[in-house]
């Protein structure tokens, strides 16, 4: 299989490069920050309007898969990254505190909906379960992620995170727009359902804006002076190691539960992936104005690219195994 970076990946790398050489500063930077705040609020408003109540109910119906994926996403992952954060005595010597905070944040993010479902489908796995579990992860993740982050930051002993301000921003910029949007679903749901491609483009535009604005702010605060090339390379390697660990543990747990190979594919992809689409907008709210924002979101961006490449390889392997298991004489 040949891998070429998709257009959106190139756009994100372009945003980082543009911010590195032509950062938005002064009045332009302030206007971009305001635009980003409004764009994120609208993003969650639209997602609230697009999500049906039946999707929320369906998320709880496949309870064994749902419990396992939730435990992997919001339990096992955060516990593993907690010791390696920049404030811990176990943190690597090369890891700055803001980068460690980024790994904590990565640990509490919900599952990536689109890629989890796409790779489960490519693997010929249990697609309905993947849809329900990934969607439920994101619905509940919007509430769980901020509070798990606050809990982990408190455990790590970081004093740079304003808990009260973060809680206020969560309510005003995430939960309130989402609730208002969901209340307006009878008026907007049909239009959004017919124009999902427009929503996808808007999501990508918001993420691009957040990345450019965040890295502009961080470059002005000395991002590249404080983050050497060695730390970037080791961050990528750590992301590869984390993804491999969670995929292996997901397979182990599925087999302990005695689930099918199709279910295993769904759990591996939904339980190990982390959402860039949800993570960056929430980070814009949680870490607004933080001088180390670029460093904080670096693990999310690295992990996202790693999971795309490794996920595609693994999906093809699952596809072959599932096809073989359905051949005459192979079924048990």
UniProtKB/TrEMBL annotation:
<protein>
    <submittedName>
        <fullName>Bile acid:sodium symporter family protein</fullName>
    </submittedName>
</protein>
<keyword id="KW-0472">Membrane</keyword>
<feature type="transmembrane region" description="Helical">
    <location>
        <begin position="63"/>
        <end position="82"/>
    </location>
</feature>
<feature type="transmembrane region" description="Helical">
    <location>
        <begin position="129"/>
        <end position="150"/>
    </location>
</feature>
<keyword id="KW-1133">Transmembrane helix</keyword>
<feature type="transmembrane region" description="Helical">
    <location>
        <begin position="102"/>
        <end position="122"/>
    </location>
</feature>
<feature type="transmembrane region" description="Helical">
    <location>
        <begin position="231"/>
        <end position="250"/>
    </location>
</feature>
<feature type="transmembrane region" description="Helical">
    <location>
        <begin position="7"/>
        <end position="25"/>
    </location>
</feature>
<dbReference type="InterPro" id="IPR038770">
    <property type="entry name" value="Na+/solute_symporter_sf"/>
</dbReference>
<feature type="transmembrane region" description="Helical">
    <location>
        <begin position="170"/>
        <end position="193"/>
    </location>
</feature>
<dbReference type="Pfam" id="PF13593">
    <property type="entry name" value="SBF_like"/>
</dbReference>
<feature type="transmembrane region" description="Helical">
    <location>
        <begin position="31"/>
        <end position="51"/>
    </location>
</feature>
<keyword id="KW-0812">Transmembrane</keyword>
<dbReference type="InterPro" id="IPR016833">
    <property type="entry name" value="Put_Na-Bile_cotransptr"/>
</dbReference>
């Amino acid at each position: 299989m040949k891998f070429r970076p998709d257009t959106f990946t190139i756009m994100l790398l372009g945003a980082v490069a543009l911010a590195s050489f032509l950062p938005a500063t002064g009045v332009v930077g302030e206007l971009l920050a305001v635009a980003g705040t409004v764009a994120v609020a609208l993003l969650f408003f639209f997602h609230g309007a697009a999500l049906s109540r039946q999707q929320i109910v369906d998320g709880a119906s496949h309870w064994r898969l749902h419990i396992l994926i939730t435990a992997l996403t919001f339990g096992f992952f955060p516990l593993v990254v907690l010791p390696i954060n920049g404030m811990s005595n176990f943190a690597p010597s090369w890891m700055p505190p803001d980068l460690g905070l980024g790994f904590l944040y990565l640990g509490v993010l919900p599952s990536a909906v689109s890629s989890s479902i796409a790779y489960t489908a490519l693997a010929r796995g249990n697609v309905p379960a993947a849809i329900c579990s990934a969607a439920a992860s994101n619905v509940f993740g919007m509430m769980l992620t901020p509070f798990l982050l606050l809990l982990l930051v408190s455990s790590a002993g970081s004093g740079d995170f304003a808990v009260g301000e973060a809680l206020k921003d969560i309510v005003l910029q995430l939960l309130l727009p989402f609730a208002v949007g969901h209340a307006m679903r009878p008026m907007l749901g049909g239009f959004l359902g017919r124009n999902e491609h427009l929503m996808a483009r808007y999501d990508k535009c918001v993420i691009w804006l957040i990345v450019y604005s965040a890295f502009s702010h961080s470059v002005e605060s000395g991002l590249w002076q404080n983050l050497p090339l060695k730390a970037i390379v080791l961050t990528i390697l750590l992301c590869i190691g984390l993804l491999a660990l969670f995929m292996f543990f997901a397979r182990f747990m599925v087999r302990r539960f005695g689930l099918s190979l199709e279910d295993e594919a769904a759990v591996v992809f939904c339980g190990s992936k982390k959402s860039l689409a949800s993570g960056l907008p929430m980070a814009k709210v949680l870490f607004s104005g933080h001088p180390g924002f670029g460093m904080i979101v670096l693990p999310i961006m690295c992990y996202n690219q790693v999971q795309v490449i490794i996920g595609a390889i693994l999906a093809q392997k699952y596809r072959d195994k599932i096809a073989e298991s359905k051949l005459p004489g192979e079924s048990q």
